[in-house]
Amino acid sequence: MQNSRAFYKSAKRNSRLTSLTEDLSGTDPPYREKLHNLFAQIESTFDALYAENLALQEKLEAVYAKQGVPDCTPANVQGQGDESLGTDTASSKSFKSKLASSGSKLKTSYKIKAQTSKIVSSFKAHSVVSTAVREYVGHKDGIWSVATKIGQPIIGTSSADHTACIWGIESGKCLLQYQGHNGSVNSIRFHPSQDLVLTGSGDGTAHVWQGFVNYDKSVKKSAHSSDDELTEAETEDERIDTLRTPVCELAGPGGHTSVVVAADWLPGGDQIVTASWDRTAILWNVETKEPIQTLTGHDGELTYCSVHPSQRLVVTVSRDSTFRLWDFRQEIPAVSVFQGHTESVTSAVLTKDDKVVSGSDDRSVKVWELKNIRAALTHIRTESAVNRLAVSANSVIAIPHDNRDVRLFDINGQRIARLSRTNRQGHSRMVSCVAWSEDPSAVVNLYSAGFDKKAIGWNVLLPKENN
């Protein structure tokens, strides 16, 4: 079971290499074809190993479920992995060290503590209800990013299949597919107030395109009893609209020289920030399509960037194990460096109450105060590498993992829940990203997407709501 982590890391590495080979325009066609064939063989081998690993894990979970052990994972059961992800694991390590020099009293004490811990964990698990409400299926490759739109019942996804899609939340149907990129589409963001969409791609560009969709037609239901009776007009409504021409392309002189992994709107929507494997981020003027400033300083490839909800603050993260905060509120921008992770930082999100939540391949999530960047306020240990996380309006952190899990924590590091994961619900491959709905009354309030080529809309009832 420990090999699953290596499998997921291998999958991410292969996807990055595949994306890179796709974007090498100078490579001879025969060599490119050989590379694609090699990667296809690697992916086939990985899928076979993963399927075998998944079958064994499901058998183990079934056994532990019969024994009444709550929320069992291989790391928790074997005492390996996250030490703060449940008191059972930490207690077992502490117990083993004390057992060598203590008598039977400690053994009795430990048993009581372990049983109490299981009771508490079981109680917490039942206080949160998570249900997979709807799936959004149609991409032909893994999904890198998912985004929600304020005030409209739509979501957006970007995929390694070179497309981005806008979906109707209620219908689960793709309403618009953007096909303007020549490489993997690595990120997607909706404009804060207009019907515009921003995407970043492995082709080294960022595109702004028209994202207006008639989402009302997606919920129309035919009054006929069978599909054979659909009229020609109704059949036309079922077809996916496609778009290939952007409103604005951010590229050319002064632009990025490598893969664009992320892009985001600054408040107001007149400026954009992009992050790239060329180790830089660029601030762009949307109207002139010209770069305003190049943000340098990272020693490794950038992996993500995001913007404060209401202030001109930008955070960039990198494989150099650091992330940087760029302050554009003054005429002369200021930059602060956050150091605390030991491996590649995969994401960092700015919250409304001026905190930064960062996630890393070192299997940790940390919460930072903008006024004090020397030490993290909260340190969350996880059992798997962390991908593109999200923070809700009420400060709940959703953490997507390499091991197919999506776990929820509060801003103080208290574990809340793990989203339901069975044969019928949840992801079957790595979960790459999550996004919270901005509508507190929405039935579907959390979205996740991953390498199983689908996005899932969840209804998550948190403890207070459930009570």
Structure description:
By secondary structure, the protein is α+β, with helices and mostly antiparallel strands. 24% of the residues lie in helices and 34% in strands. It has helices spanning 3-22, 29-66, 74-78, 87-99, 104-126, 232-238, 463-466; strands at 129-137, 143-148, 154-159, 164-168, 174-178, 185-190, 196-201, 206-210, 241-243, 248-250, 260-265, 271-276, 281-285, 290-295, 302-307, 313-318, 322-327, 334-339, 345-350, 355-360, 364-369, 378-381, 390-391, 396-400, 406-410, 415-418, 431-436, 446-450, 454-461. The protein has a five-stranded mixed sheet with strand order 2-3-4-5-9, with no helix packed on it. It has a four-stranded antiparallel sheet with strand order 1-29-28-27. A hairpin with a 3-residue loop joins β16 (313-318) and β17. α1 (3-22) packs antiparallel against α2 and α4 runs antiparallel to α5. It is globular and about 60 Å long.
